[in-house]
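User: two proteins, same treatment. go.

Assistant:
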Amino acid sequence: MGARLTNVPESMPPIRVVALYRFTRFTDPQALRAPLLRACVAEGVRGTLLLASEGINGTIAGSDAAIDQVLAHIRALPGCADLDVAESRAAAMPFHRMKVRLKREIVTMGEPGIDPLAAGRYVAPEDWNTLIDAPDTILIDTRNDYEVAVGTFRNAIDPGTRSFGEFPTWLRERKDALLAEGRQPTIAMFCTGGIRCEKATALLKAEGLDDVHHLKGGILAYLERVAPEDSRWQGECFVFDQRVAVGHGLAPGSHVLCHACRMPVNEAARASPLYREGISCPRCHDARSEEQRAGYAERHRQTALAEKRGEAHVGASFPPNGNADNPL
């Protein structure tokens, strides 16, 4: 997936946004950090990349030529020739800076004994409907509660987790029910771009659940490749950049970000008197003091002034809740 047009039409948004990951074994991720950061900065690419002993993950944006150069650098890293990539377009740069960070995990589950290379079976987006339409398939959304609220697949189970680190506990509390009567259930799992499902399905297999499948390329691949009239998707897909959410064809969605709590806000919530752009939304209004809201108002004013000058303002940063991970 993620094939790029060689001749980009003039009407197409100029910024290429690439969500990528690869589980592989880096013996010395620290040695990879500085050269990778230099390669990104030299090409004017922005975003966040995470490096760990288990691989690489992140989202970057830039011109087509710049992204080509950075992807070539990443694909030359050990085990990254078959890098998983999801691409979309943006009218403006969705990131303010470039960061390459060292982490213990490229997506944080907190289960050091799980080998993500022992994941479940991939299912192509074109074959996903057949799997999840089967009456015996158990469909599980591995994302966080605020992501699920923006959109999910019809009939999917929502674990109600606030972070991916809560998923193992949720699963173990339900494992016996899933293995009821000694039979192996068919389980289908999905996430934004595929990375969380690699670990989630590996966890299920380690817990004795063997008939486990996950959506290749995640929701982003499905929305890109499955026609709206054939889709089982409902709502929009939350993404971890300034676009906030996307729909079918990866077109920009209707959600905006509350810059007080960093949560997505839909059109109905924006009609509430508790919503004030850059200051509060119905989710966080009562949890913030007047002093805090005054601070948000000043930050919003400074951000607007910076935008008028054509500059980036550090106060308008992603992702939600200050989480530096980009959990695809």
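Protein 2:
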Amino acid sequence: MKAAVVKRVGDKFEIETVQIAKPEGREVLVEVKASGLCHTDLHFASHEFGVPMPAVFGHEVAGVVVEVGPQVREFAVGDHVVACLIQYCGHCESCLAGRTYQCKHPEETVRSADQSSRLTLEGQPLTSVFGTAGFAEKTLVHENQLAKVPNSIPFPQACVLGCGTVTGAGAAINTAAVKPGDTVAVIGIGGVGLNVISGAKLAGATRIIAIDVQPGKFDLAKKFGATDVIDSSTVDPVEQVVALTKGGVDHAFEVVGLKQTSEQALRMTRVGGGAYLIGVHKPNSRIEISVMEEFIASQRRIQGVLMGSSNIKHDIPMYAELYLQGKLNLDDLISQEINISEINEAYEELKHGKIARSVITSF
């Protein structure tokens, strides 16, 4: 089958013919119908995060089950499913408390060192990054990383549920617990940022301020529910947010992954407000805060967010249903559908913030 392979950190994606194993244990073989190009995959492929190379990335995956392992309990051939990079065992303390995104034994969802690799290239093992490896015609995934969705949701829209939506909307709904009447700022309005706006709107926020350096994104942000927009390339976004809200927002979400924007997120919150860091930073990144002024005296909080604090078995089907009811905008997230051979060009466009999401729908 065809797959996009990264052979060394920093290399381009190369389209190769790779081999995929038959499902064992609780593994599910999925024919990939749509695979979204999330910036996280590019970030991990471009920087040294300890991912063994060569590797197959891709974690926003929607497809159809074509075969199941002998111990699979939830899925059957023909099911429509969405994959997610949250890897959880289901029996540790965190999982039993419902915090599967904090699982202590995520390694249980992948093959052990004494088992054969799920993917190989010319007889050599390939890393299935995040356990999903969705930049391929088929993927072999542990059933804990899959959620069933209605057959009526289109595959391109379904695939973004697995990361962009659970991460963005989940950050607003689960992590920050935005409530009716709250005020929200979102720094960075790419695919995940637009989903933060969607989640804040669903939760009842009355003011949602979208912040970006590219004014061309502002009309799209308003489609998702932004009430105000700020071009941070021309004005100080902290000053603008504080002025608009007469003191700062209840919740500020950073979806860029930069030191400057992370510090801005904290400073644009009100007394007692919260800043939520979603964007993936480079390894060993640091931020600076004034402990007394910006933390203790102002009673602010800052929290890292992983995958929107989501329980995918509950949240992905919920978001799918909200989409089908017309309450969650997924259609405008899909900027273009591409062939897998166009992956490098599409990532260049994403890198420069030109589009929300490209989705591989043909191989």
